[in-house]
Every structure is written in structure tokens, then in C-alpha cells.
# Entry
Amino acid sequence: MGSGRSTGILLRVSAASPIVLALQECDEALRAEAIELFKQLAGGELDEEARFATTALLAEILFPNADDKGYPGLDLVEAEALAPAADPAAMDLLAAMDEQEAVFANRLRERMEAQGLRAYPNNR
# Structure
């Protein structure tokens, strides 16, 4: 009975070791922020969306070179491709964002053209 519990604890400690080591490598300000985020996670008061966002932020703090090219962070195009798998409602949100971006781009283009400006010198 006791050995099963000990094994579970050992497995959790072993799984946590990369996180602890990454936390140790953070500068002081990021370490303090990460610890506060861990406290929020442990507090049990976050809803599922807040837990997901908090966990993603912790991953970004602790493992900043997470993409396959060695660049810090996650590429926006890749993130938008992953979002629907995590939450099917994201498709509607992404479509609305694309529409808002298009409206903004059109308004900006109209204002620039009205003032005789072009976004790119070679753009006609």
C-alpha cells in the first residue's frame, strides 16, 4: 500500500524535474512571475480557459524556444492552425478575426490612398 503511493510521488517528482530546472534558469523577474502563475494553478479557482492560458504562459516562460526552428514563442499561423483542435469554437472566432483584419486593412488602404501614400513602394 505504501510503496504504490511512494512510486506515484516519485513519478511526479521525476516528471517535474525539467520544469524545476527550467525555472532555475529563468531570470529573477520571470521566475517570480512563473511562481505566481503556479500558485494560481494550484489555487483551484481558475476555470478551464484560464487554466489553459496560464499553462500556456508558463510553458512560454519556462521553455521559450519551443518551436521546431528554435525561435522563441509560437508562430501565429501555427497557433491559428492548432486552435480548432483545442477548441472547435475557435473556428468561428478565427473567422471573425480574419474579417476584422480585412476591414481594418481596407480602411487603412483607403486612408493612405486618400493622402497619396502607398503601403509598399512597388505596390500598385
